[in-house]
Amino acid sequence: MEWENVDAVLLDLDGVLTPTAEVHMRAWATLFTGVLEDLPEGDGDDVDTSPYTDEDYFEHVDGRPRYEGVAAFLGSRGIELPHGTPDDAPDAATVCGLGNRKNVLFNELLDAEGIEPYPGSVALLDHLQDRGTAVAVVTSSRNGPHVLDTSGLAERFEVVVDGTVAAEQGLAGKPEPDTYRYAAERLGTDPSRCAVVEDAVSGVQSGAAGSFGVVVGVDRGVGADALRSAGADVVVTDLAELLPREQQDAWRDRIPARP
């Protein structure tokens, strides 16, 4: 990375700073497996009840706001439910109800197991702090503050744009660039001087659509080719790869091999 051209770094949270993407995946899998199993027999010839897979997560859910992820998956299986409202109970048979149920499952897992940030991500944050580079978290999740508190990262970020902030400000979610542009505005930095760091295809697309200085894709499982096709300028498997070369020696054996 040519950090001389970057004044601010805008980072996704789940899968970039913390391994909570895996926790989200488990919560989604529990939710949608139950939804498919509970469908009544003969619910329609166009309804696909084949088992939920990680491919469903990466194609329909990863990086999207929660209710949009629910709607996208249900639509892919031909399942029709009323949208409902964000106030729906977690057991409501609506898009919002299912989204709220997933949130309950996620927080139960997070509270039970806790979460530690990726060491390489912490190393990069330390480097950016040393050079005076501004940082912000931009996440579609409404659980951003909870994850930051649990992982011990909360004090590192004065600007956090999460799903709640996006709703309050009327910002379109990823893959639109609005949330990242809002973070840049909050930091007082021109987008052309910002780096966007994302592990989801929809997040990389949002960075590419916003005319940011550089878009970094972090391959935590979606695939380097998919991230490049979505608009990533650089693809890494660990944020330690973005450290200055002389600092990478200490991390070389800890960075996963890139496919």
From TrEMBL:
The protein's UniProt keywords, in alphabetical order, are: Carbohydrate metabolism, Magnesium, Metal-binding
Question: Which InterPro entries does this entry report, sorted A to Z?
Answer: Beta-PGM-like, HAD-like_sf, HAD-SF_hydro_IA, HAD_sf, PGP-like_dom2
SUPFAM superfamilies with a match to the protein in the record:
HAD-like
- Superkingdom to which the source organism belongs: Bacteria
Q: Which cofactor does it need?
A: Mg(2+)
Quote the Gene3D superfamilies the UniProt record gives: HAD superfamily/HAD-like, Putative phosphatase, domain 2
Family, according to the entry, reads as follows: Belongs to the HAD-like hydrolase superfamily. CbbY/CbbZ/Gph/YieH family.
Name used for this protein in its record: Haloacid dehalogenase
Species, as recorded: Ornithinimicrobium pekingense
